[in-house]
Specification:
Helices cover about 5% and strands about 40% of the residues. It is mainly β and about 475 residues long.
């Protein structure tokens, strides 16, 4: 039996990897994503069809309490035959999830760690692949699988094929082989899930709603015919929804509710730009008659690290103070005894140049296309290397010359068209990429589809969201 499970796990892992390597880039989460209790991003126990952005690493801790006056004694037929002692424990889970190529998410979890006589170790792995292209903006579809090892209770329990339960703690009453019942197999949980994103109304606060619907085997369906294990069951069908509010500066508030096939769960999570905290209640419909059929209050915390940026996944990084370099005043006029005729200053059309610090400076444009600056109207072409304009520019940066994308709020923007001239009064700064400020037009609405970075004084390069998917 163990050999068969290992083979199933190996086959599932190969299938997920093959899909990840052959499908077009999927949809990565670009708002404050929520964390499941032990299986990476998602709702509480229910997965979603989006995945973590590329090279994003999320570590999550969750814990909840179970407290009942007595436990149920179950016979080999799955029937309740008596009451056992009280049960009062705080249960903890930990997981690490990793985003890959904006289309896959992989991770590991630890759900129990103890001596074999106390249930042993419950270790898990999980993965999910988004299979729809990113051009399908409001609809996502994913295939995934979860694996959890079986508990062990030593030799005193005889030859039982113990299985992991949906609450992630060793329970000697849960095993495969109840007389007259379906097979109970919960080690491997394959599933398919679809997610629809509904944008909020423009007149109200910045929010969206996600709707999730899916079907899975394993823990989503195992035990559906056992009275002690369920109050009701949907035979593998699960659903959930989240209401996500943007609070500005990379902070998000998410309210969520779900049905995992057995339990109605609800929770709240707050994302502070990479640091996430939450609280939840499991089994809202239960009456407290057993450890399984009881309400469970818990807390959650997670940290999201963006390896590409070398720090926490803050959607709007705090811009550093610009390195302001002022153009030195022209040298004083030299007074000579001889009378000299001062040549007239070059002429041109008055104009402005928008600097990387978001400030316009007055210049003159000649008929030959030259730009004159300063009181002496010096040509920008004749300025020495020691004279530079205020702000940071991308013109000589390797990422700019190599046509690499600009990342903003965990969204990818690709170079679009040739450099253009912009007026500082028409744009505003919204972030930083590799030390260079990122601007958008003041009239633009979130989520932004076009951003601009300063290439040189007065020259701005546009970067467009979704251009990679369009080209592919």
């Amino acid at each position: 039996m163990m050999h068969r499970r290992s083979k199933l796990l190996h086959t599932a892992a190969i299938a997920l990897l093959a899909i990840a390597l052959t499908t077009a880039p999927g949809t990565a989460q670009n708002r404050g994503s929520t964390s499941t209790l032990r299986y990476g991003s998602g709702l509480l126990d229910v997965p979603v069809a989006t995945v973590l952005p590329h090279l994003t690493i999320v570590g999550t801790y969750s814990g909840f309490g179970i407290s009942v006056d007595n436990t149920l004694v179950i016979d080999r037929n799955g029937n309740v035959v008596g009451n056992g002692p009280a049960f009062d424990k705080w249960l903890s889970d930990g997981s690490v999830a990793f985003g890959l190529f904006d289309r896959a998410e992989l991770g590991i979890s630890i759900q129990h760690f103890d001596d074999p006589e106390e249930g042993g170790n419950l270790l898990g792995a999980f993965g999910r692949v988004s299979v729809l292209p990113s051009s399908m903006r409001y609809l996502d579809l994913a295939l995934g699988a979860r694996y959890v090892s079986s508990p062990s209770f030593g030799d005193d329990y005889g030859n039982y094929e113990f299985q992991p339960g949906r609450f992630a703690y060793p329970d000697a009453r849960i095993y495969n082989g109840y007389n007259g019942h379906d097979e109970f197999s919960s080690n491997l949980t394959p599933y398919v899930v679809a997610t629809a994103t509904l944008p909020g109304f423009e007149a109200g606060p910045d929010y969206d709603i996600t709707l999730n619907l899916g079907w899975g085997g394993g823990m989503f369906s195992a035990g559906s015919d056992l009275e002690f294990y369920r109050t009701s069951s949907s035979n593998g069908l699960f659903a959930g929804s989240a209401l996500n509010f943007s609070m500005g500066s990379g902070r998000y508030l998410s309210l969520m509710a779900e049905w995992n096939g057995f339990d109605a769960n609800a929770g709240v999570q707050v994302d502070f730009g990479g640091l996430r905290f939450g609280a939840f209640m499991l089994g809202l419909q239960h009456d407290g008659s057993s450890t399984i059929k009881s309400r469970k209050f818990g807390i959650l915390g997670s940290v999201a690290f963006c390896a590409e940026h070398g720090g926490l996944c803050s959607n709007v990084p705090e811009p550093p103070a610009p390195d302001t370099v002022m153009i030195p005043a022209p040298p004083p006029d030299t007074v000579v005894i001889e009378r000299q005729v001062v040549p007239p200053l070059p002429t041109g059309t008055p104009s402005t140049v928008c600097l990387a610090i978001g400030m316009n400076v007055e210049v003159m444009l000649t008929a030959a296309g030259d730009t004159l600056v300063g009181p002496s109207r010096v040509s920008m072409r004749e300025l020495g290397p020691g004279i530079v304009f205020a702000g940071s520019y991308a013109g000589e940066a390797e990422w700019f010359t190599e046509d690499e994308p600009v990342m903003l709020e965990e969204r990818r923007f690709d170079k679009s068209g040739n450099p253009v001239r912009l007026d500082c009064d028409d744009i505003m700064q919204v972030g930083i990429h590799e030390g260079v400020p990122v601007f958008v037009e003041r009239s633009a609405e979130e989520p932004y589809t076009m951003v601009y970075v300063p290439v040189a004084p007065g020259e701005w390069q546009g970067y467009e969201f979704g251009l990679q998917g369009t080209r592919g």
